[in-house]
Amino acid sequence: MTAVGDISGPAISDRRAVVSLLRHLRSPEGQADPLPVWEGLRSMGDVVRAPWGAYFVTSFEACSQVLRSRNWLVPDFAWQERQPDPRRWQELATQELTGTLSRINAPSHTCQRRALGNPFDRSTLEGLRPAIARVVTGLLDDLEKRLREDGEADFVQTVAELLPVRTVGEWLGIPKEHHAYILDFAHRQAYAQELFPSKEQLAQAGQATLEMRAFFGELIRERRARPGNDVLTGWIHHWDAHFADAPEAAARVIYHLTMFITIASLETSAVLLTNAVRFATEEPARAEWLRAHPEHIDDLIEETLRYDPPVWLNSHVAADDTVLAGTPLAKDTTVHILYGAAAHDPRRNPDPHVFDIQRDGGHITFGSGPHYCLGAPLARFEAREAMAQILERFPTLRPAGPPSYDNSRLVFRRITSLKVTV
């Protein structure tokens, strides 16, 4: 048995209390303010038994250990096949995502990440800067027009959801006319990543998966026929050469990379930008201070990521029998990393309930270790450019009310609406 750390003793199992907290998290009140749920779970221990036999990891240190340690894996095809009831994992949409970077382990994961390198390094982002700035300016022109005509506008639908899909569209060479369709099937496919999706949600995710296959399959076929000076063309050349004797394997990797990198950041980046605008403008003094100190826009983004992470939960499984925070866990045991609970751990971030731009605190919202989010630099870059322009162009922008959420989510946040006014 390998010890992964002893932080605060064994897990506390209080099924009724855990169920009550999870029900609250699914409610409109819990979606709007999840902090009491994070505090409630963390008060039970650093590792808390879930009603279905898995465990919640609530502390910053224990979550970091799971993400960084080789003793923890993502739930890949091999793990799914070992489950007593594999039916949950045989759904079309679930199988599709299990083939992506987020759900494969070494050595396949290592091979693909090395081939990708750092797709959003500093030089790449600087190269994308003019295009991103142009996209932001155009979206804010639309926002300004709606505000002028109607007095208020929906920031999510006008700006936040469109910026990431247009950015990745520019990067991969996906025509603008397809962006709305991509957003639509990405929203529906995300249900497959929930802990306990309903039959209806799985059906929606399954249909979205078929649409994704058709869309990206055709995109890749077109790019093979007419190569361009773009990232997708480069992937095709690389993987065709890597799998010279196995064209089906090459096609599978290219599809999964293109599909996953396109859809993976859409909802999370939209939530980040919406929250950043909300937290920056809900207090006029804070917005005024940021306009006077634009060098702190990066700090605003980091505190936004800490305070309300776009992803609430991520699952890993034990590679071997182990001990986490004093709790013995058998091989294949599932743990759910709670990013929000970790970021509000007062041992890592004192007064975690306070939104403090100058906190200089810590979060693991983009993960850590081998599965660190590939698109994190791009998400930060998009949010930084958008916030800089928003603060300059809309000195009196403010939320017209609280945001609305998709209350069916427990894994990925989705803000469906945030009305703003001036």
Can you put this structure into words, describing what you see?
54% of the residues lie in helices and 9% in strands. The chain has helices spanning 15-26, 28-32, 35-43, 60-68, 77-81, 92-98, 108-116, 122-150, 155-160, 162-172, 179-189, 199-225, 231-242, 247-264, 266-281, 284-292, 297-307, 339-343, 376-393, and strands spanning 2-3, 47-49, 55-57, 72-73, 152-154, 313-318, 322-324, 327-329, 334-338, 398-399, 404-405, 415-417, 419-421. A hairpin with a 5-residue loop joins strand 2 (47-49) and strand 3 (55-57). Mean pLDDT is 92; it is low at 1-12.
Brief rundown of the structure:
By secondary structure, the chain is an alpha+beta fold. It has helices at 15-26, 28-32, 35-43, 60-68, 77-81, 92-98, 108-116, 122-150, 155-160, 162-172, 179-189, 199-225, 231-242, 247-264, 266-281, 284-292, 297-307, 339-343, 376-393; strands at residues 2-3, 47-49, 55-57, 72-73, 152-154, 313-318, 322-324, 327-329, 334-338, 398-399, 404-405, 415-417, 419-421. Strands 2-3-9-6-4 form a 5-stranded mixed sheet. Strands 1-7-8 form a 3-stranded mixed sheet, with no helix packed on it.
